[in-house]
């Protein structure tokens, strides 16, 4: 059989990637385009295609409340996970004996389905029978309404997500630590750097790209946070934990206002895209 020409090889390659292109169009492009169509009144909720849903959105206090909750949850959980994940990675990298024993164990939280994590949180934080209040009672402290407190429920949800995903961040940072060049530390130690000074002026700057990679991965999940909130609080008490994702779900499935719900999701998609672009561009600036 004669060898194929470069043109024939290129044509074969195009046919081989065609299923992936079709799947991408079917699973990503079409749903996004249809959501934009619905948000513009394409389901008949508006007299004609236009920005009516977006005008309503700008004047809706519930939308601004959900946006505030989304951004606060995003900021608090992301900072906690990056700080605690870095601390855990430093500990695992320093103590080799512990690292081998613990590395597998710390995988378990983020390998659990969100449904399981949410059910664990409900059981542990139950005001009457939960282990958390039992510990407080044993210490002589009053009971606490963990998930039922309008003031603190959002922080509790952020802590639940932090418990689940801090090990994930730690593994990313641990990989970054083990890839750092040893010669930089040797030069820094010759110059007299050690302890906190070594970490602040050498390790942390070198970990910048790794930390920003973790930030990109976690920001996408945190901004579209849904599962654990829906299982534990369903956006309550009141609207204390109602994120944009939860609000869009209620609008679309509880009130059947699909067009307006789609406009909320388009705004959320733009926020997610903006955060990814921001962290990705920042990562390029700190790359070494």
Automatic annotation (TrEMBL):
Residues 67-277 form the ABC transmembrane type-1 domain. The chain crosses the membrane at residues 20-42, 62-92, 104-125, 152-177, 198-217, 260-282. It is a multi-pass membrane protein. Keywords: Membrane, Transmembrane, Transmembrane helix, Transport. This is Carbohydrate ABC transporter membrane protein 1 (CUT1 family). Belongs to the binding-protein-dependent transport system permease family. It is found in: Cell membrane.
């Amino acid at each position: 059989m004669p060898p194929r020409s470069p043109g024939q090889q290129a044509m074969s390659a195009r046919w081989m990637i065609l299923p992936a292109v079709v799947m991408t169009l079917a699973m990503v492009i079409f749903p996004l385009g249809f959501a934009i169509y619905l948000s513009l009144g394409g389901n008949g909720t508006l007299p004609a295609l236009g920005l009516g849903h977006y005008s309503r959105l700008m004047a809706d206090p519930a939308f601004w409340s959900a946006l505030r909750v989304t951004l606060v949850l995003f900021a608090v959980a992301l900072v906690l996970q990056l700080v605690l994940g870095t601390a855990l990675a430093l500990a695992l990298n320093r103590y080799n004996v512990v690292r081998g024993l613990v590395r597998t164990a710390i995988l378990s939280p983020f390998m659990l389905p969100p449904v399981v994590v949410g059910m664990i949180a409900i059981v542990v934080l139950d005001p009457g029978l939960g282990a958390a209040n039992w510990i407080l009672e044993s210490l002589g402290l009053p009971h606490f309404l963990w998930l039922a407190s309008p003031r603190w429920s959002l922080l509790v949800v952020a802590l639940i997500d932090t418990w689940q995903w801090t090990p994930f961040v730690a593994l990313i940072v641990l990989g970054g630590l083990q890839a750092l060049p040893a010669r930089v530390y040797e030069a820094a130690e010759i110059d007299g750097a050690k302890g906190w000074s070594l970490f602040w002026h050498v390790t942390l700057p070198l970990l910048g790209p790794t930390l920003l990679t973790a930030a990109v991965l976690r920001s996408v999940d945190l901004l579209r946070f849904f599962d654990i909130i829906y299982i534990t609080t369903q956006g309550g008490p009141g609207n204390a934990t109602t994120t944009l994702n939860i609000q869009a779900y209620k609008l679309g499935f509880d009130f059947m206002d699909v067009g307006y719900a789609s406009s909320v999701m388009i705004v959320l998609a733009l926020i997610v895209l903006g955060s990814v672009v921001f962290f990705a561009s920042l990562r390029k600036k700190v790359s070494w």
